[in-house]
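During the no-cost extension, the postdoctoral fellow (Dr. R.K.) reprocessed legacy sequence entries with the updated structure-token encoder. One reprocessed record is reproduced below for audit purposes.
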Amino acid sequence: EGAYHTTIQQKGEMNMKNRTLRQITAAGVIAAAYAAISLVLAPITFGAVQCRVSEALTLLPVLSPAAVWGVTLGCAITNGVGAATGANFLGLIDLLVGTAATLLAAITSRLLGKIRFGGVPWLSVLPPILFNAVAIGAEWCYAATGSINVAFWAFAGQIALGQLPPCLLGVWLIHLLERRGLQNIIEGK
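Re-encoded structure tokens follow.
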């Protein structure tokens, strides 16, 4: 009986290690995809009319906590490369502020993902739009005017409008993955 118990325990530990490795791998793939999409589309990723297509991936945390770290790392890589190459006019401050906004949005989207309307996590769209509108809108306002003032609302609105299409694409992606039974890829199962 002792040998049987040890074998069961070893299998359980191996399954846990394999699941952790799959989750780390999923986070890495999501980070790479976010950064690759963002950097290939750099003119609209960092431009005056910002629309990060990669923000569609910020809805993946609805499926897995590993995706929270994947999109956050992808955003950090994107903002870091953008600052280093001069593509991101906000510079290194966006590495901190923009990445923090993405982390908060990912965590909140994950929490809201449990609330569904017609089986779709519509509320999960709101955090990436709102956190980025506030954080990036404030960065842009300060960069343009030297302070946070009434112009903030125009910058925040512009960012929110740019976030809307990719976030709606993200909801469609979640819905598609779940309908096809592919959510396990993101979940690390």
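The chain has a mean pLDDT of 90. The CA atoms of residues 76 and 99 lie 5 Å apart. The remaining legacy entries will be reprocessed before the final report is submitted.
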